[in-house]
Amino acid sequence: MNASEIRKKFLEFQEKRGHKVISPAPLVLENDPTTLFTGSGMQPLLPYLLGKPHKDGKRLTDSQPSMRLQDIEDVGDPRHTTVFEMLGNWSLGDYFKKEQIPAFFEFLTEVVGLDPNKIYVTCFIGNEKYGIPKDEEAAKIWQEVFKKAGIDAKIAEIGSAENGDKRGVKEGEHIFFYDDKENWWSRGGGIETTPIGDPCGPDSEVFYDFGEDKQDVEKYGKSHPASDGARFMEIGNQVFMQYKRNEDGTFSELENKNVDFGGGLERIAAASIDSFDVFKISLLKPIVDKIEVISGKSYDNNTDEMRIIADHLRGAYLLSAQGLKPSNKQQGYALRRLIRRAILKALDLGIAQNFISEIVPIIAENYKDLPDSILTTRDEAIPTLEKEEKAFRQTLNKGLREMEKMVRKDADGVLTGDDLFKLQDTYGFPFEVSVEEVYRQGIKLSERYKEEFESALAEQRKRSQTASKGMFKGGLEDHGETTTKYHTATHLCLAALQKHVDKNIAQKGSNITAERMRLDFNIDHKLTPEEIKKVEDQVNEWISADLPVVFDEYDKEYARDTLKAHGSFWEKYPDKVKVYTIGDEKNPASREVCGGPHVEHTGVIGKFKIKKEESSSAGVRRIKAIIE
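The chain above was modelled as a monomer; its predicted structure follows.
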């Protein structure tokens, strides 16, 4: 059974159990500033698990695409991916353990067809300090479930995962008790860090056994369900929210208990073909097969590179098919990073030409069953990714040419850290890319290239600070009356770009004199004449309205998270920032962190006229404007 079939069968299975199939949430959550992306199947359901009634009732199910970039450095092994899909079902105060555990086992063994002898499970061992008993109930239900499948499932009390690395698995054991580091769920992690007032409880994880020959005792110790290594892989987790953390730190039973189940689609699919390598499943293998054709190299000899390319382009497609554009800001930067890492790994395979257009249609076909409510811009995904690939390859090619010149200039053919800094600072060739390319070509590096690079970087920062002394913040030449008008007009121009062109536009630099203003901003296309006119008209409309311009100082976090003030360099701002608001306090035309100066009301500025719109650098455009 391939992954698409498993997804379909799961939702049908849960529907028969009285669950309402709900639409998955987008990867980018509009009203959740706590995270870049939807990182788990239960994340969009959290308000309902905390007590809010759901319009579709008490039994819900879905298949939720998710992304965790904290795993990006682990991609390359057989099972880590940045993007994954979670099959989920929830009981909001309805059924509990005795219904959930047998149902999931039935789905795995009778629907997917997994061998019950290869299924292993874990339960919570309890915590005496907080009076939370061992989850004997779940263990007993599991024993009954295994017995019906003809298996006498023995119980092992492991405690901490480290204990298991010493003892491994003994004959007949299928049920394992672990402590709260493994089998307790709360938003804070373990028992000690469970937030006051939050629901929480034990969980029961389910693992698939790929065989004793997959364990690496020397590296990981003896294999057991919660151990590292390739033998056991978690394929699902059932969280039983039956407790609440009280004000005094104790725990009490909830009157209405919830079930939160999440199962990894990719991992269940891998178990269904008995492969510990998730890149062999139907959602990923066709991508790998195409990479083999394009590169002329085999997967077996280039697993890391091909896994990274397949994973990253899959994630890039899902993000771009949901309307996200590559940029240097938050989610857009994450998308850009996925694309660029994939291209760099393609270069490692000798793929020097543009190749994304050959890969992405395969990914799109794999996800044709996902609803349009999630993939709202499917048709725009391929052009978006192609454009980003073309721009990055141009940057790489230019950097490589300059690197070759530098090598020829040096009598010994040695590159220094100063050379690598110039490649990054002048040509946009990233330091880590330079180092990889140096090793690939066998070019010599100076012994102190890292220190030399850091020294050059520090020197540049010092020069920048010196150059900015005596100047007003925001790229102003002086603080005269006309320059001040231009400065306020620059804020209005940025706000108009965000309103009429792209809400994700951010300032990338400005230069303001008494004769004109210049604004650099991120965007993936040349502005159309219609867009330029809309921006110009909007700025003049705000000027004609004679809006008030006021400022106040706030804590940085309050300005960013509560006021939603625009700022391009949050990590560099001090703890207290000055925020300028133009227009109504509740619905301002512009609200931006800035050091000043500004006019007191927009009516004094004059008529705003855009004279030129042009490219500044890759992914950055520039507007030059005057006041008439």
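The domain at 3-276 is CATH 3.30.930.10 (BirA Bifunctional Protein; domain 2).
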